[in-house]
Amino acid sequence: MKLLLFSDIHSDTRVASNLVERSEDVDVVVGAGDYCIARRGLDQIIRALRKIKKPTVLVPGNSESEKELDDVCLSWENATVLHGRQVEIDGTLFYGIGGGIPVTPFGSWSYDFSEDEASELLRDCPAGAVLVSHSPPKGALDLSSDGRRLGSEAVRDVIKNKKPILVVCGHIHGGAGQIDRIGQTTIINAGPRGVVWDL
Predict the structure, then answer these.
(1) Residues 151, 44: Cα–Cα separation, whole Å
(2) pLDDT tens for residues 90-108?
(3) Measured between alpha carbons, how far is 11 from 83 in angstroms, rounded to an integer?
(4) Where are the domains of the chain?
(5) CA-to-CA distance for 88 and 94, rounded, in angstroms?
(6) Rounded-to-integer distance, Cα 91 and Cα 87, Å
(7) pLDDT, tens digit, for every residue of 149-178?
(8) Does the model's pTM come out above 0.90?
(9) Vertex 166 angle, CA 175 and 168, to 5°
(10) What are phi and psi of 139, to 5 degrees?
(11) CATH of domain 2-198
(12) How far apart are CA 84 and CA 99, in angstroms?
């Protein structure tokens, strides 16, 4: 299964058009959140992405809520929004969790979760799935521009316990396009340029 992975496009319609074009050559598209900017412009960017005809798995970032993403994706028949739930596509399980984890310093507009809330949302993640998480795990692809580790302990714990085959994340822009591992699990901070990955 060939995947096109992306995150953090933040309302850039040129980037969205490029992803639509590249999606023609893959089996499944995976979006790891932050499609718009601070809860504004979600309709327009999803309208651009809706031209993707392949099965598409999306999680909300911290820039849009699950409900907002669900609402704008109602007419996108190929898209599935995941947040604390899973979908099976051609025999592969995808499980998703969105939002900023842990809670960001950005204020009330940011769609965030505590580590405890995230652990609860991740409780039903099946072993060996593709985990799509807006936030990276603590200690992998989570280094901020000022050298702090901003990833999620809950995401790291589910990687250690459930051993997903792949983790797709975003959120930390400095890690965009980079690949890391925790144990046998590959972790990709997809970024706006996107990464094609053979599963």
Answers:
(1) 29
(2) 999 999 999 999 999 999 9
(3) 21
(4) 2-198
(5) 6
(6) 10
(7) 999 999 999 999 999 999 999 999 989 999
(8) yes
(9) 40
(10) 90, 0
(11) 3.60.21.10
(12) 11
